[in-house]
């Protein structure tokens, strides 16, 4: 059996607000609560389990490989939601996208200040 990532915990100030935000941007559904977690399942079966916490936590980076034909729709959702997106991970180029590795990509902050990324082509390794 190959090793696969099954789920990861995403700390949030408000699990519902953060989960619904990302689900809206990506065009996904928020699942039913599972104990203290509020899950979003992505296309490859990995679940992001949102966990609400008042404790300090470090901002994380989550990158999503998205279909090219849905990228513009996701950017339009960010614009409609009033969320600034950036071409770079340090947020120095607001309102722009990048063209890394022959694809398109953008970065944006979620309500808990995690640095989210959407990209249409995986990074070359």
Explain briefly what this protein structure is.
By secondary structure, this protein is α/β, with parallel strands linked by helices.
Descriptive overview:
With 125 residues, the protein is α/β, with parallel strands linked by helices. Helix content is 20%, strand content 26%. The protein has a three-stranded mixed β-sheet, covered by helices on one side. A three-stranded mixed β-sheet has the order 4-6-5. The longest helix has 13 residues, at 68-80.
Low-confidence segments, given as residue ranges, are none
Widest beta sheet: strand line-up = 1-3-2
Quantity of strands, as a count = 6
Largest sheet: 3 strands, mixed
Strand content: 25-35%
Principal-axes shape call:
globular
Percent range of helical residues:
10-25%
Q: What is the radius of gyration computed over CA atoms, rounded to a whole number of angstroms?
A: 14 Å
Overall pLDDT score: 96
Helical region count?
A: 2
Look at the helices and sheets and give the structural class: alpha/beta
- Gap between N and C termini: 24 Å
| Elements, N to C (H/E) | EHEEEHEE
């Amino acid at each position: 059996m190959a090793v696969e990532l099954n789920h990861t915990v995403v700390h949030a100030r408000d699990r519902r607000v953060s989960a619904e935000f990302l689900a809206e941007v990506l065009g996904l559904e928020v699942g039913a609560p599972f104990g203290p977690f509020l899950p979003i399942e992505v296309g490859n079966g990995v679940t992001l389990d949102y966990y609400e916490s008042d404790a300090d936590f470090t901002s994380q980076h989550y990158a999503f490989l998205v279909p090219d034909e849905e990228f513009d729709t996701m950017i339009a959702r960010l614009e409609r939601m009033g969320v600034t997106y950036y071409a770079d991970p340090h947020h120095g180029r607001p309102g722009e996208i990048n063209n890394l590795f022959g694809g398109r990509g953008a970065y944006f902050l979620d309500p808990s200040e995690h640095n989210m990324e959407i990209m249409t082509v995986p990074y070359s390794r």
